[in-house]
Amino acid sequence: MHTNKETPPILTLLQMAPDFHHYCVQEALKTGDTIPASHLGDNLYLIESGFLSCLRDIGTDEYLHIILQAGDFPYLPSDDEETPEIMACEALTDVTWWKIDPSFFNETVRQKDPDQAFFTTHSDKSRKNIENHFLLDRMHPEERIYFTLLNLMRLGSPIASNAIQLPAFADHQKIAEYALTPLDYTTDILNQLQANQLLEKNGTITNVTAFNAILESKNIPENNLQ
């Protein structure tokens, strides 16, 4: 489970370089700020805290919603031609990120991470996001909502042994947007979960075990998201 509070390991690695503050500048975004793709072109941006929602253009008038958190980059030079281009990003919460000179980043990672484990992890996550989109696209609308809730649970915070608080931005509108389902239908499904005492209005999944049982009954993969 990701609480989005600890310093990302890649940031710790970069900060070990003596000239870190010469090549890296901390910036802040407010909730609702939008960042066009043109803003991301000349530098790299590493999220230190908060959540960004980004759209990737996967062609045929389709867009892949991805949620980025601490330790993520909207774009890296290692992204291959098969990685869909990011069109725009929106700050789902207040965000702190670092604007990083690409040459400094590449040289520091080359020295500190010669096996390129970080780039491998980044590429694997990007590929899995794409795979999950096509998996979601083949699901029944109700299943898409459960699958989306599972994704959001992994970004939330445990508040008890069997309960998870979803991220604050996870309102009905955002859940419908990520699940690719109409808002009215999404609200009906969420209301059913509330009636069954599995979801509170404040966004708490009150019984993770029971929720996972629903996933299993509908053959929704539980381990496909990170």
From TrEMBL:
Keyword annotations: Activator
Gene3D superfamilies, per the entry: Jelly Rolls
Domain of life: Bacteria
Record InterPro entries: cNMP-bd_dom_sf (IPR018490), RmlC-like_jellyroll (IPR014710)
Protein name: Crp/Fnr family transcriptional regulator
Organism: Listeria newyorkensis
